[in-house]
Amino acid sequence: MTEEQNLREKGQRRIEWAKSRMPVLSSIAQRWRSETPLQGIRIAACLHVTTETANLVLTLKDGGAEVVLTASNPLSTQDDVVAALNQVYGVKTYARRGVDSQTYYGHIRHALEMQPQITMDDGADLVNLLHSERRDLIPGVLAGTEETTTGVIRLKAMEKDGVLAYPIIAVNDALTKHMFDNRYGTGQSTIDGILRATNQLIAGSVFVVAGYGWCGRGVAQRARGMGANVIVVETDPLRALEAVMDGYRVTAMPEAAREGDIFVTVTGNINVIDRQHLLLMKDGAILANAGHFNVEINIKALAEMASSRQTVRENVEEFRLGDGQRLYVIGEGRLVNLAAAEGHPAHVMDMSFANQALTCEWLIRGKPSLEKKVYPVPAEIDALVARLKLESMGIKLQELTPEQKDYLASYSLGTE
Ligand code: ADE
User: Fold this and answer.
1) What is the pTM of this model?
2) Which of 318, 339, 360 lies at the terminal end of a domain, its last residue?
3) Domain membership flag for residue 416
4) C-alpha–C-alpha distance, residues 19 and 46, integer Å
5) Is residue 403 part of a domain?
6) Ligand 1, pocket-test mutation among 15, 25, 50, most atoms within 8 A of CB
């Protein structure tokens, strides 16, 4: 068997494995095969090219859509999935792991050539390129969806500046997305990436988590669960207070920098670990980023200060500073869970991608009249995804009795 055949067969087997763990998405695909609600709709998807994404794309295809897929990060692509999508499933996929920035954007440009009616983005790079270079396509776009916190922030900034040219549905903001994917998905897969890259013992380590949003909460919780002594660094007073009451040590980065054995940034902001913090770190400290963009750790400053730089394990680069201090960066400071592991497990992506699929159906079937704004996922979709997920897990929900429904609807009954 040729290498290419091997690759696509591996991809196909892994896509099947993920499918078996995505019952909600599978049930949508099954219904769509007869209903084809997306018949003839062109969708350009810019997502991490993983086995879970493959199942979303195949579901959209089952719904009748024509789909083109491009990567949403240069280091998150699983090449076996690309081979299987292109060669087995007939889905045009522009992606290769480890490409440079020019090639990465070239792939997005190719995807846009299909003249999408719906854009499906993870981080808003496709939407941005469409707004800057392919404005000719804007009249043909009905709407877009956005998968991640960072993308939603960018798109809301575009809306605020009056430059957003078509409506976007913020899939990230669905409760059945961020409460599970961001917290339990990022929590587990970030630790997974760190372990696969370093085989470091977490128990007894000082583990610094910068950012206590949904992702940060998940990472901190899982690190603590493995016996780490977790320090949270946060700029928002409410979130910092929550971290304190969740039982974590909370302090500023200059203090945390001196103590940490392992650092994870998950803030969505720039230079969270900056030059001055790097200089304070212990010899041997491990640095990883779980935020969308590779800007949270100032790797440029680290490279400038380093007297040498070498890859010491797959996905681990050693930077040796002037005084002999060694710092280890995982996956070039890109999303550690996708660069050094496989991303979130299928079980949780099932809910995120069910939201994506059902949002597309609502956009096409419901024909909602939308302005050039960022909108939430309809609450009915969120509730349906939760119900379907519980059902698929065989978990029974207690129903309200008629008396209880009346009680909740009344205001006359008070203290007895
Ligand atoms: N983001 C995080 N994990 C992912 C996965 N497994 N597939 C697609 N996008 C992801």
Assistant:
1) 0.96
2) 339
3) no
4) 20
5) no
6) 50
